[in-house]
């Protein structure tokens, strides 16, 4: 077998050696006409239905063991939908007309039902449309005899190689057996990369055409420190990478010695070093790495890994679990940020030309206020169990804050009337992700309790460069002087209005950015848990005066290249 070397982008650090599992979503082409008899088509339909039921029962069993009865019960609902007699009758009626394939009749009728359900008033019934879509897809694949890939049960020592992985694919990955993943597209700030970092799962993205080069079961080395991939490595390479892996793990252990240390600069200025999480499961990593709080809890994964909107109770449980585990340390929870590259299987989002500029995040929540109100109530109730702060994403206009605050006040009043406890002084803050906020930071700051800079989006919106488009990934750079100026303006505006400002975009965890951000006056850094020890160490090694002088030099640079050269120069001097 031929050795192949592929270069990609290091998206989540670590080194893994394992076997390739090529993940490809199976393609299904549906042909309307049939050359079978009506009876044969009906048989295919029933056979697919039975197979689907078997699979759903198996998933239910597995869910019962891993996630408990509540989640497992969801699949009973799915089976009921699958066996809906009216639905089957209507598909059969279509088949009776003759000359139609079972796949076509099934797809047509499912679509019809979904449309009907999603137009209903009752939110519970509306949400069933997504269930039906999901079941319909499985049923369809089973009629056509096309296998559905299940990422949650893969053999040991697997390395997933895929064109792309969605955040929900990533969430499904079985961490017992999967050692790493490699994708053809995507960048460091794609949400699946971010999730890989919080799962501490090594990942390399942007590898071009790896799916056509790799074969199932081949040995693969993933160096997610450099972005290097080797297929069918030599014995010598295997030895080299095994020792590189050991070294990486040792260093990781060593840095953990900083776990209980505060991040105080040489001249005594302390900053917060917080973590970004996507679910309560990530809290373990935060505590192990010495995170001093949560600067960003991306709640949309709670919405995405579900087949319907999570209830107030389910949300409350998740938020409470995190708040309690953090024992009084700040827990900044962001309201649902759906849209852009994050979709919900059960919520129809419009097809948009520019989803990142479209119906996303706070825009969705202010149109569908019931979603935001449910989330606010769950957050408020959980605030009685720890130090919760609420954060709104994608703000670009002050009226958005005012409308959200009004809803929050309404939720507070409701809880109060019912005698339910919550933190009356709960803080409301916003993400700084649009130039609209950065340029007018002082005015926005007067309306909220805190800011957190989301550089992943701030970079794409300042530069007009899509964060997930690999064709222009060379243009996406947070060190671009315009982005740095937007960051600086946000920090100055926040301080002028007397509020604190942190950063939860990926730039906060960039080791080469610490001095710049510290020099600009950032109050707290929030990042993937694995980056915490290094950023703490960086702060311990600098002082404000030299960091400020460095900022002045950098802000006089005309191009990104000049900035990067200055940054390199600064760090090489520091190392000496
Ligand atoms: C950001 O935009 O920097 C951010 C932290 O939000 P997300 O990556 O979830 O869009
Ligand atoms: Mg964002």
Automatic annotation (TrEMBL):
Listed GO MF terms: kinase activity; metal ion binding; phosphoenolpyruvate-protein phosphotransferase activity
Alphabetized UniProt keyword annotations: Cytoplasm, Kinase, Magnesium, Metal-binding, Phosphotransferase system, Pyruvate, Sugar transport, Transferase, Transport
Family annotation (SUPFAM superfamilies): Enzyme I of the PEP:sugar phosphotransferase system HPr-binding (sub)domain, Phosphoenolpyruvate/pyruvate domain, Phosphohistidine domain
Principal location: cytoplasm
Pfam families in the record: PEP-utilisers_N, PEP-utilizers, PEP-utilizers_C
EC id: 2.7.3.9
Cofactor list: Mg(2+)
Residues where Mg(2+) binds: 433, 457
Compartment list: Cytoplasm
Domain PEP-utilising enzyme mobile: 155-227
Gene Ontology cellular component annotations, sorted alphabetically: cytoplasm
Domain PEP-utilising enzyme C-terminal as annotated: residue spans: 254-543
Domain (Phosphotransferase system enzyme I N-terminal) ranges: 7-128
Chain sites annotated for binding phosphoenolpyruvate: 298, 334, 456-457, 467
Residues of the active site: 191 (tele-phosphohistidine intermediate), 504 (proton donor)
Official protein name in the record: Phosphoenolpyruvate-protein phosphotransferase
């Amino acid at each position: 077998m031929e050795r192949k070397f592929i270069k990609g982008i290091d998206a989540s650090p670590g080194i893994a050696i394992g076997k390739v599992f090529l993940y490809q979503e199976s393609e299904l082409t549906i042909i309307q006409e049939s050359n079978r008899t009506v009876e044969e088509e009906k048989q295919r339909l029933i056979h697919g239905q039975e197979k689907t039921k078997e699979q759903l029962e198996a998933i239910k069993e597995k869910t019962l063991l891993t996630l408990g009865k509540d989640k497992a019960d969801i699949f009973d609902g799915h089976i009921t939908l699958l066996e809906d007699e009216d639905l089957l009758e209507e598909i059969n009626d279509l088949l009776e007309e003759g000359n139609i394939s079972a796949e076509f009749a099934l797809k047509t009728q499912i679509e019809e039902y979904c449309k009907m359900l999603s137009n209903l008033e009752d939110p519970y019934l509306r949400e069933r449309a997504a269930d039906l879509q999901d079941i319909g897809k499985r049923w369809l694949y089973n009629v056509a005899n096309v296998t559905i890939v299940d990422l949650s049960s893969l053999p040991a020592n697997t390395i997933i190689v895929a064109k792309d992985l969605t955040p929900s694919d990533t969430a499904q990955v079985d961490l017992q057996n999967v050692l790493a993943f490699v994708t053809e597209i995507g960048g460091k700030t794609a949400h699946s990369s971010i999730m890989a970092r919080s799962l501490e799962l090594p990942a390399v993205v942007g590898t071009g055409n790896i799916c056509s080069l790799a074969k199932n079961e081949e040995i693969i080395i993933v160096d997610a420190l450099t972005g290097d991939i080797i297929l069918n490595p030599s014995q010598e390479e295997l030895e080299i990478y095994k020792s590189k892996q050991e070294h990486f793990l040792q260093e990781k252990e060593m840095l953990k010695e900083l776990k209980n240390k505060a991040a105080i600069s040489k001249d005594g200025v302390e900053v917060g070093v917080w973590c970004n999480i996507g679910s309560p499961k990530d809290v373990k990593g935060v505590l192990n790495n010495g995170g001093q709080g949560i600067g960003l809890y991306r709640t949309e994964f709670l919405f995405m890994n579900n087949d319907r909107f999570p209830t107030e109770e389910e949300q409350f449980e998740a938020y409470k679990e995190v708040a309690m585990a953090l024992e009084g340390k700040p827990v900044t929870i962001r309201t649902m940020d759906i849209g852009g590259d994050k979709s919900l299987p059960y919520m129809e989002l419009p097809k948009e030309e520019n989803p990142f500029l479209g119906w996303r995040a706070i825009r969705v929540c202010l149109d569908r206020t019931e979603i935001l109100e449910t989330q606010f109530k769950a957050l408020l109730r959980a605030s009685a169990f720890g130090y919760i702060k609420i954060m709104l994403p994608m703000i670009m206009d002050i009226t958005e804050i005012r409308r959200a605050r009004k809803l929050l006040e309404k939720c507070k009043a409701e809880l109060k009337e019912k005698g339910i406890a919550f933190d009356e002084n709960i803080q409301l803050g916003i993400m700084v992700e649009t130039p609209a906020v950065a340029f007018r930071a002082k005015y926005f700051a007067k309306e909220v309790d805190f800011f957190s800079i989301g550089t992943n989006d701030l970079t794409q919106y300042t530069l007009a460069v899509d964060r997930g488009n690999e064709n222009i990934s060379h243009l996406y750079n947070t060190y671009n002087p315009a982005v740095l100026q937007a960051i600086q303006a946000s920090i100055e505006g926040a301080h002028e209005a007397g509020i604190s400002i942190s950063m939860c975009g990926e730039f906060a965890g960039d080791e080469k950015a610490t001095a710049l951000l510290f020099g600009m006056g950032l109050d707290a850094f929030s990042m993937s848990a694995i980056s915490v020890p290094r950023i703490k160490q960086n702060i311990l090694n600098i002082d404000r005066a030299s960091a400020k002088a460095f900022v002045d030099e950098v802000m006089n640079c005309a191009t990104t290249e000049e900035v990067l050269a200055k940054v390199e120069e600064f760090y090489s001097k520091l190392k000496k």
